[in-house]
Amino acid sequence: MLESSFDNLASIEHPEYLLEKMQPFLELMVYYHCAMLEIKTKLEVLDKGLALRSSRNPFESIKCRLKSPRSIVEKLRRKGYPLNIGSIEENLNDIAGVRVICSFPDDIYDLADSLCAQDDIKVLSRKDYIRDPKPNGYRSLHLVLQIPIFLSDGKKEMRVEVQFRTIAMDFWASLEHKVKYKKDIQNPDQVAEELHQCAEAISQLDQRMQDIRNNIA
Ligand code: 0O2
To answer: What is the atom index within ligand 1 of the atom nearest the CA of 67?
Structure first.
């Protein structure tokens, strides 16, 4: 269904036909959007609560994004999954993505633990790339959460991927992401090595900043 909707865009002369074909996909995206907002609100409530108790805010910013239709189709194709609505829900965990940027590593774990402990949230997976970084130096804590959204005709469980990083890890990941998609790099091995060294330096800096805060708290 998805494939035919996207591939035949140019040949469709009747917008009603297009809208009808797209409706289930558009509805699903609204559900993911709602689930993403639920997670964002929960994090903001936790932030306010922790700020009241400790006079500090555990996160600096939250970014939310829905995966684009093109990226969804590309990922389904790349992984060999069927191109239909059911397959999106069943096989992809990162249609709705929330990225939480914290100043200090300990805040990441405090926030993530408080979120996971909430009784309407189910943790489907947890990958700790901070304690166990990827070979290129990538660090973040990734959670795939399942959360209910309440619609007029009932409840629907949705998945949201939540990534937690420090400001410094986020800075690193944005540059590494740009490098990954740049085609004409002259010396890719050297750039990869530089990035790896920067990731190590960032990790040490994060820990030193954490130690300073612990000492003055
Ligand atoms: P986008 O546009 O950021 O969403 P998956 O393919 O998600 O089923 P995987 O690879 O096990 O399975 O997922 P993982 O390890 O949890 O990582 C998924 C996301 O984490 C990526 O999403 C990136 O956002 C981020 N990420 C993971 N590894 C790296 C890395 O080495 N560098 C950077 N910069 N980001 C990373 P997408 O889908 O790649 O892209």
So the answer is: 4
